[in-house]
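Give me the fold.
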Amino acid sequence: MNIEQLQWVKNIKAFYPKEGGKWAYQFQKGEKFALHWRNKDGKDQKNANNLAAGDMIILRQLGKVTHIVQVLDNELNDEDMKSENEFNIYRNVQVIWITDNWDNSPSVGRFFEAKSLPQGGKAYQIKRLEAFKKRWGETGLPEFQKFIQKELNINENSSI
């Protein structure tokens, strides 16, 4: 795994909670899944298209870091665009890291100025976020990536 590919953060919210759980996503390491965007009136297609194959995304849920996923291809996929489901576009991703303690997942405050993080479901480029710049400065992305790697105990040589 190349930690330099960790470029994005995305907030996930369970709009349609699964029975018995508060988490929108609980996929396991190595698992592939469709990472959805809310696409009401086609407004998030451009955002979902910004990510490239190989890019990694921190997924945060309920103020916690729960996953790091890697984008698998350059395809924006859509479901029935005429359906009632607003979450009708997605990117194929694979889980490369997952929390080992759902009851005590790492707080986003360990990594960002949490009060400044956008709450929407778009993917945000980490280095452009005020929540990042306040803590890490304009050029702190490499240090941030190394810190994430250390704090989440991610082995650089690990494979999915």
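DSSP finds three helices and seven strands in the chain.
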